[in-house]
Every structure is written in C-alpha cells, then in structure tokens.
Specification:
heterodimer; A: 158 residues; mainly alpha; Helix Hairpins; 5 helices; B: 495 residues; two-stranded antiparallel sheet; 2 strands; 2% strand; globular
Chain lengths: 158, 495
C-alpha cells in the first residue's frame, strides 16, 4: 500500500510540476494546486499509513497519530486561501495585459509600444488611460498607480 | 512569561482594528502607534535574553514537546527589535509614498499583518508554526506586492506568488518529513533527537531540503531570481520594508535551523551554505552593476548582502556567527536607508532612472545620507557595514580551508563591484549639471523619514561596539544549543 501511495503522490507532484512549467496562467494555477495536494499526501504518508485506525479517541482503537492530519488541515486551509488569491491575481493580470501567456507579458507590452509600467496595456480594457476617469472607480478595486506628479512640480521640471 | 507573545498580538490586533477605521489619517496614526508599541514590547525582551535567559510562553499551558511554544532567545530578540524599528520607519514612509487609493484598500492593515507574520517567524518555537508564520508573511506580501494593480506589479507579482507558493509546498513536505523521521516538530525537541541520532543520511537530506526552502526565501543565488524583479514594483514604503526585513526572515530561519536544530552534520551543511553565499555575493554585485534604475540596483545589493549572511553561517564558528548576526542587523538598517534615499530621489526627479545629475547642489544633505548608506552597504570604514564585513572576513580567514578563502575572495571582490555600482549612482545622480528643480516637490514627511533612517545608520555606526557585543552574546548562545533546548523543554532552568 505504501508503494502505491508513494507512486500516486509522485504522479500528482509530477503533474503539478508539468503544468507549472507551461505558459498559460490557468495551467500554472492548476499546477500549484496539484503540487500542494501532493505535499499534503506526502505529509500523511510520512506520518505512517494504517488501515482502520481512526484519529479520534471517542472511537474504538487502535488509533492513528492525529498530528499529520492536523498539519494537513492547516495546509489545506492556507492552500485554499492562496489559491483564491492567485486566481484573482490571474484574472487581474489577464485583464491588464490582455494575455494569458506568462512568457509573453513583456513581448506583448513592447509590441504595443507602451511603457512596461503603463497601467493599461489592453486597449479595450476599461482602465485604458484615454477613457480613464478616476471618479468612476472611487469605490471599485484599485487599478492604476497614481504617479507622483503634482502640477507645480511638473511645471518646474519642464 | 507571557510578554513574549505581545510582539505578535499587538500588530495582529492593530491589523484587525485597521480594517474597520474609516478615516485615512486615523488609520495612519493607529498604524504608527501600533508599530511604536510593537517596538517597545520587542525591545523589552532584549535585556533578559541578552543576559542568557530563554523566555518561553506555552500557549494554552500545554507543556513543551506537545504544545505550541513561543520562544524568545537573544537571536529572536535582536532580530525582532531590528525589524520593529524598520516597521516604524516603513509606516512613516507610507504616508508620503503610498497613494490614497492603495491606502484606502488596506495598505496599513496589510502592513500590520505583514509585521505579525514576521514577528511570529522570529518567535515561534516549532517548525510547523514557522511555516504558518511564513505563510502569514507571504500572503500579506502577495497582497502588498500587487496592491494597486499596475501592469509591472501584476507581472512581477504573479511570478513572485507562484514561485513562493511552490516553495511553501516544499516547506510543508519538509515539516511532514521531519515529523515522520524524528517524531516531533518542536525546535528544542528536534535538536535533542538529532543530536542523539548522530549523523544520519535521512536527517541530512531533510536538512538540505529545508536549506533549499529557506535559501529561496532568503534569495540565495540559484533561487534568487524572483527578488530583483518584484521588489522595485510596489510603492517605496512596501519595497523598502520587503528589502530590509523579508529576506532576513529567511536568513533568521537558516540561522535558527542550522545553529540550533540540525547540528549533526556540519561537514555537509556548512560548505553548502558557504558555496551558496559566495556565489550569491558575486551575483548580487554584478547584477547591481547591470541595472540603471534606483530600486533595481538596490534590490541586487540586497541579494548580495544575504550572501554574506549565508557565508558567515556556513563557517560554523562562533566568531562567524557573531559577525553574521551583526551584519544582519547592519544590513537591515542600511538597506532601508538606501531605499528611503531612493524614494526621495525618485520623487524629486520624477523618474526611476538614476541618470539625472546635480542633486549634490539641490540636496547636499541627501548626498550625505546616500554616502552613509553607500559606505555601509559596501563595507568601508567608519560604518557598521565595515565592522560586519571585517568580522566575516576575519572569521573566514581563521577558519582556513580553500572554500573559506574562496568565500573571502568573493566577498572582497563583490564589495569592490558593489562600490563601483553605487558610485556610478553617485556620479549619475549627484554630480553633473543641475537638472533637478531647485525646490523639488517632495513632501516634508518624506524628508523627515529619510533623515530619520540616515540618522539611524549613523547611530548604528557610532554604537557598533555595544551592538557587536550583543551580537557576540547572541552567537555564544547559538553556539551552545543546549541553553535553548533546556530553556524550552525544562521550563527555563538555565545553568
């Protein structure tokens, strides 16, 4: 059983790493999910595998060590949060760059002739500077970086 | 001794409170007050720990190997205090450099969550809680790196988050394996069992796995490529705190794990750390030479400075550890100062590139501050950087062996290259014709923060003696892990 378990964990980790190495944002996110599942299974395996042994004292023994399961529970909760964050980030990145290709973030921006830190490289995105009205976004998510330019400083510079 | 928990509780409470405060100025004052309070409760731990006591708080009163321990020894206390000082400066730097939208979307609350995670990393007494603390730190840092959603932030932030999540998965596996192998997660208990077991291949492999994890968080050479891209992207206040403290959290974990816990096979772990450190200092210095913008140059010098820490730790001698701890403190302060100077320069010149010219006439005091930071980073007398690097070179020379000598050579070469890189900044920004406006549009609060950071650098240089003595005490405590083990497992009975 341990060998089979180990193989499964390994396959999961391999799948995750394979997906991580691809260039599509969503695959990278899925790859990370696979890797974290593999990590959780690895903890369970490292803690020792037993059949028909509950981790609860209220049930009849023999009992299994509950600590690895507690560790996994914590790791799952943290993994859940970080995956949610990563998905949000992926969506925002897609919207801002108009690309779901990690490796082409830079090329795409260069092709558009824009500055890399231009807040909206996607011409159709609502944050495109030409149509950007800060008051429309007063209560929305933070989108564009405000620059440090004050009118009088700009005048002095020129 | 429940005061040990306070450096974690204060920022956590402040962070939660900050989520409900509606006025921007109230938020700022609250954040500043909480940071000052954190600094006070952190500094309170110093006297007792530097006397050699190990302060322990058992959460829920569960005894040592079973419950969760919050432990403060000298290393925890000094790193905690250094990070708390930087936290206060980061909050003050937030006022002029973080725009109102980022501020409104929780910049200060996130900063306080970040401080919570950092302080918990310094204080936790077991491996799994170290993982949790790292995650708290990282989740807050993910949000801070990408808060604002500029394209550069999203691009670099995505890489930063993905890479760090992958390494976190490795960390969990490491924690699980160490429980499987040694049956415990408590540092003190682990140390006892590792010592009893002697050199074992499985334990050494586990140590190397954890070294990989912490080397990534510290940004040592082959695993450092995420840092120079991501640190310049968020606003200066965030970037400065990241650069000054976050890499040092990884360095703290390395020191803790390899001086207290996995001490059974120094022949493997020591040279590995020395080699990584030696390569890192070179890569950091050369990278700094290749960049043209303020914060990209400084981010590479951060990579270089953590290399020194890894090298000093790899030496394994008490002198090496003392120099490492001192250099850690010095590099926290110096890095923050340089980033603050960069924030001022960027605001005054309205660009990120250093090629402006003439700042020496417009802001001579800033030139002085930059020079203090430059000397501290390069390690020229009379600054604290010199004291730290001199200690490291001396410890390396005493250690002997070809690897130690190579490391010493790498440190000296990299210091020279860093000098060239930073003097280039000096030449481009401070010398030449005056291109800056005579009265640059810099808010006074930014000027005050920069001045405070510079003053701190100068003070650290002036008081290098007492600080180095504290570092030596810390190193002496680390060299005898028995004190820590006894302190945690047997309720603080110190010899």
């Amino acid at each position: 059983m341990t060998v089979l378990y180990g193989v499964i964990t390994g396959v999961l980790a391999a799948t995750g790493v394979y997906l991580l190495l691809s260039r599509t944002i969503l695959r990278v996110v899925l790859g990370l999910a696979f890797v974290s599942y593999a990590a959780n299974l690895a903890i369970l395996g490292a803690g020792g595998l037993t059949l028909n042994a509950p981790p609860l004292l209220s049930l009849r023994g023999p009992h299994v060590d509950p600590l690895p399961q507690a560790l996994i529970l914590t790791a799952i909760v943290i993994g859940f949060g970080t995956t949610a964050l990563l998905l949000t980030l992926a969506v925002r990145t897609y919207q801002a760059t108009g690309r779901d290709d990690v490796a082409r973030f830079d090329d795409e921006l260069n092709e558009l002739g824009g500055d890399l830190d231009d807040p909206a490289a996607d011409p159709e995105h609502p944050t495109n500077p030409e149509e950007f009205h800060p008051e429309d976004y007063a209560d929305g998510p933070v989108i564009a970086a405000e620059t440090a330019l004050t009118p009088e400083a700009e005048k002095e510079k020129s | 001794m429940n005061a040990v928990v306070l450096p974690v509780v204060v920022p956590l409470a402040a962070a939660i409170l900050l989520l409900f405060v509606r006025h921007a100025s109230v938020r700022w004052w609250l954040s500043l007050g909480a940071s000052l309070l954190t600094l006070a409760v952190s500094a309170l731990l110093l006297p007792a720990t530097l006397r050699g006591e190990v302060l322990v708080s058992a959460l829920g009163d569960w005894p040592a190997p079973w419950g969760i321990q919050i432990v403060a020894d000298a290393l925890s206390a000094v790193t905690l205090t250094a990070s708390a000082i930087t936290a206060v400066l980061a909050v003050t730097l937030s006022r002029p450099t973080v725009d109102s939208r980022r501020e409104r979307f929780g910049h200060h609350a996130l900063l306080q969550f970040l401080f919570t995670g950092v302080n918990l990393s310094f204080l936790t007494g077991d491996l799994f809680n170290l993982f949790v603390a790292f995650e708290v730190t990282l989740v807050a840092s993910y949000a801070l790196v990408t808060l604002g959603g500029a394209v550069g932030q999203l691009r670099e932030g995505f890489r930063y988050v993905v890479f760090n999540l992958l390494v976190s998965a490795l960390f969990v596996v490491g924690a699980g394996l160490s429980y499987g192998l040694l049956g415990t997660l408590n540092f003190a208990h682990l140390a006892e069992r590792v010592a009893a077991l002697g050199p074992t291949p499985a334990v050494t492999a586990l140590a190397l796995l954890l070294m990989t994890v912490f080397a990534t968080k510290t940004a040592l050479f082959p695993l450092a490529f995420w840092l120079p891209g991501s640190y310049p992207e968020p606003p200066p206040a965030t970037g400065a705190f990241f650069a000054a403290v976050l890499t040092k959290v990884g360095a703290y974990a390395l020191i803790r794990v390899f001086s207290t816990v996995f001490t059974s096979e120094p022949d493997v772990t020591g040279p590995a750390l020395m080699a990584l450190g030696g390569l890192t200092v070179l890569v950091g210095a050369l990278g700094a030479l290749s960049q043209r913008t303020w914060r990209a140059i400084l981010s590479f010098t951060v990579v270089g400075s953590v290399g020194f820490l890894a090298f000093g730790l790899g030496l394994g001698s008490e002198a090496g550890l003392a120099a490492t701890v001192f250099y850690l403190l010095s590099s926290v302060v110096v890095t923050f100062t340089l980033f603050a100077v960069a924030a001022w320069a960027e605001r005054a010149s309205l660009q990120e590139e250093t090629r402006v010219g003439g700042a020496l006439e417009v802001a001579p005091w800033l030139a002085g501050g930059f020079m203090a930071g430059l000397l501290g980073m390069v390690g020229l007398p009379p600054t604290s950087g010199f004291v730290g690097k001199f200690g490291l070179v001396l410890a390396g020379a005493r250690e002997g062996g070809w690897l130690a000598w190579l490391g010493v050579a790498a440190m000296l070469v990299s210091s020279l290259v860093t000098l060239v890189a930073l003097v280039t900044v000096w030449r481009r920004f401070f010398w030449g014709e005056v291109c800056l406006p005579r009265r640059p549009g810099v808010p006074p609060s930014l000027t005050v923060t920069v001045a405070a950071a510079v003053a701190l650098t100068v003070l650290l240089a002036a008081f290098s003696g007492p600080v180095y003595r504290a570092a030596s005490v810390t190193a002496a405590q680390l060299a005898t892990p028995d004190v820590y083990v006894r302190g945690v497992l047997r309720g603080g009975e110190t010899p």
